[in-house]
What does this fold into?
Amino acid sequence: MNKETSHKRENISLTYKPLDNHPDYHLIRLLKKRKKQQGIMPKKSILEATKAFWLPIACLNVDTYSTEELEQMFWESLAQLNAQQELLWNIVGQALNIERPQMNAGFQPMVSHNQKKNWLFDDRDESDENIYSGLAYDEGGIL
It folds into this structure.
């Protein structure tokens, strides 16, 4: 067995067709426009935006990565999320003349650093199950 076939793979597919009176319709159009103008694939944009938040959380819940690797993922994700926030302020905030609030540094941690329990998900293997996002969909998009 070669190295490539000894690893498992996960697959996710997304087909979403919102009606033109839904904000998600305009998101999809923007992603397609970026593909046409800048060669940026919509799937890649969606994956990068999702990974910026969820990747360190997902990797924290497996025993594959060292503390140093997890810390690097954490800081890279924070940098990506901060860049996304800056982009929002520079485009939408300025277009709407919204005054930028002062950010508060205080926060409440949800889980102690010493806890190993996965608080976000249970331990069932759902690889063969349909995952339900909790959102209701119809032919026009999210209900």
The mean pLDDT is 80.
